[in-house]
């Protein structure tokens, strides 16, 4: 049976992608953030996951305000990153796992979710930056991709509980998959930040640390705020914590924090990285 080996939660700021493209990892401004990936690199080298299921939000590359699905799941055998205007276009393609994607889709539909099924899909910085951070300098990514996009842009947004429940359905689907793949779960985005309006530059360290403190031991604590509460607390883009909440829901067994890094600011964003180990739940 397939196994979920752990979870990686990280910011996906496009400025990080530009720093990678310009080899600024050791620049004093960027180094505290990039240093947070040292334990993740060691863990990935030891675990060697076969598949990464990535909960993220699309930034207008596939979906725009006139057509914005609440949830969308990629079911392609290959994905490519495209430049959205940030001046970064990472060339390495992402190999998909269409069979496992369809298994997940079938399971979440049976769990009464209604995702858009995408047999052709490009990915933006919300997927590409975390992959570049986790597997730097390789000719090809060693891990296949299954992207799951969550609407964090066009209101009404899904509730934190709905996203957590989606994650749980995805986790159960992976557990029931008949293959022997080792799967890592990603939640990308955030933490608190706002890019526009009177509160541009808003960062809420207290809320960020609340999320970091509870992510592993008590993820349901993050469900006490509805989406409008989160916008108020964390900023209009800080609502990307929904991706983290969904990813945490997919870790259905025993979870332990292995590493955590928090650095403020990175391009007007509270940047964070968390690594969680995962042991399978005991089925009754």
UniProtKB/TrEMBL annotation:
InterPro entries noted in UniProt: Xdiol_dOase_suB (IPR004183)
Location of the Extradiol ring-cleavage dioxygenase class III enzyme subunit B domain: 7-269
Pfam families membership: LigB
Alphabetical keyword list: Dioxygenase, Oxidoreductase
GO molecular function: ferrous iron binding; oxidoreductase activity, acting on single donors with incorporation of molecular oxygen, incorporation of two atoms of oxygen
Protein name per the record: Protocatechuate 3,4-dioxygenase
Species the sequence originates in: Alteraurantiacibacter buctensis
